[in-house]
Design a protein that fits this description.
- The chain is of the alpha/beta class.
- The protein has 14 helices and 14 strands.
- Strand 3 and strand 4 (52-58) form a beta hairpin.
- Helix 1 (16-30) packs across helix 14, helix 4 (119-126) packs antiparallel against helix 5 (130-147) and helix 7 packs across helix 12.
- The radius of gyration is 21 Å and the shape is globular.
Length: 369
């Protein structure tokens, strides 16, 4: 079947969504299906790749988001879908592309929405008042559930904001490339200026809370641990964080976008994942596959992903630093082996099988009760 996937906020060079779209497309193709991906870009275009055909439609950059583009011309998107004649449609943005559920109903095409973000968490960040935030998230999630035949969530944590509405989404965890990310990339003999290497690997934007990684470094050094922080990633907060680290005298290296982070992930002692609203966390899973344990936020979905191979801490420097110390207290060989073993529970093949099952015509629409 021809599975047409539509996504916004796909960065040209990095990001978990880009990785997921690529790996799912490759899996669909290997299973004998025809994956097509529709994304925004600077100009219209089309190319064929090992993970399916990519159709690019013109879309403007979203202000303040560091290069992400958005499909806003609905007529253009609908015309492309009419031309592509999908057997299934898979949508990867429930904030700006929810209208595609209506298009699919009119066209008689089974539709699937993938919940990559927590609207609960996003609304809490930007809407004052917990009650108002929850009400807004519930209203938007109810519209999503009504618009699509199937909703897929990647964790039980992400499912819960739908379940309280009487909706039962399909749960399909994402995966990690266990060959590409491996402890074999560790550079154990690399010269170090500090005893402990912390790694923050991710986008430097407000919803990711990257400043917590700086604060954790300061807390650890204040207790006598000779740690440094390496930051692999870019975003709107990079300049401010770089200036702040220098002003505080913290040994933090900001590398910007790193095209191939495998050696960093495998060589670090601990990876920090401070985002409070992560619904899966591919970067954390890539760290585990590389043999490096991860400290995550208690309130995010990541505790169920990292399992016993990581430690969940509260969203403050004291709690995060305590979690780092807990990991460092474990024998290095054991903590690295546990990290790899946890990652091996999430092969991309299982994710592909789960998504294809969600697209199956045998599924009853929507999961709504």
């Amino acid at each position: 079947m021809r599975i047409v996937r539509v996504a916004n906020f796909v960065h040209a060079t990095s990001g978990g969504l880009r990785t997921a779209l690529r790996e799912l497309g490759r899996g669909y193709a290997e299973a004998g299906h025809e994956p097509v991906l529709v994304v925004p870009g600077a100009r219209a275009g089309e190319e064929r790749t090992g993970y399916g055909r990519i159709v690019t439609l013109p879309g403007p950059m979203a202000p303040g988001l560091g290069g992400y583009r958005v499909l806003i011309n609905r007529r253009s998107v609908a015309a492309a879908l009419d031309r592509l004649e999908p057997d299934r449609i898979e949508v990867h943005d429930r904030s700006t592309l929810r209208w595609l559920g209506r298009w699919a109903r009119r066209a008689g095409v089974p539709s699937l929405m993938v919940s990559h973000e927590s609207l609960d968490g996003l609304v809490r960040l930007f809407v004052p008042g917990r009650a108002l935030g929850r009400w807004s998230a519930d209203a938007l999630n109810a519209r999503t559930a009504a618009a699509f035949d199937t909703v897929v969530c990647t964790t039980a944590w992400a499912q819960r904001e739908f379940q309280r509405l009487g909706v039962t989404p399909v749960r399909v965890p994402l995966g990690v490339d266990l060959e590409r990310f491996s402890p074999a990339h560790r550079d154990a003999g690399a010269a170090r200026a500090h005893d402990v290497m912390l790694l923050h690997c991710g986008r430097l934007s407000a919803e990711k809370h990257p400043r917590l990684s700086l604060d954790t470094l300061a807390e650890l050094r204040g207790t006598g641990i000779d740690a440094e922080l390496v930051v692999a990633g870019d975003g709107p907060l990079r300049a401010a964080l770089t200036t702040e680290a220098a002003a505080r005298g913290l040994p933090a290296r900001f590398l910007g976008h790193v095209p191939d982070p495998r050696a960093l992930l495998a060589t670090a002692d601990v990876v920090l994942a401070p985002g409070p609203i992560e619904t899966f966390g591919l970067a954390a899973l890539e760290a585990l596959a590389s043999g490096t344990p991860v400290v995550v936020r208690t309130e995010s979905a990541l505790p169920e992903v990292v399992g016993p191979a990581g430690v969940a801490g509260p969203g403050d420097a004291t709690g995060f630093a305590a979690s780092v110390r807990e990991l460092l207290a474990r024998p290095e060989t054991g903590r690295r082996a546990a990290a790899r073993a946890q990652a091996e529970r999430f092969p991309w093949s299982a994710a592909v099988d789960g998504f294809l099952a969600a697209h199956s015509p045998a599924r009853s629409p929507s999961g709504r009760r």
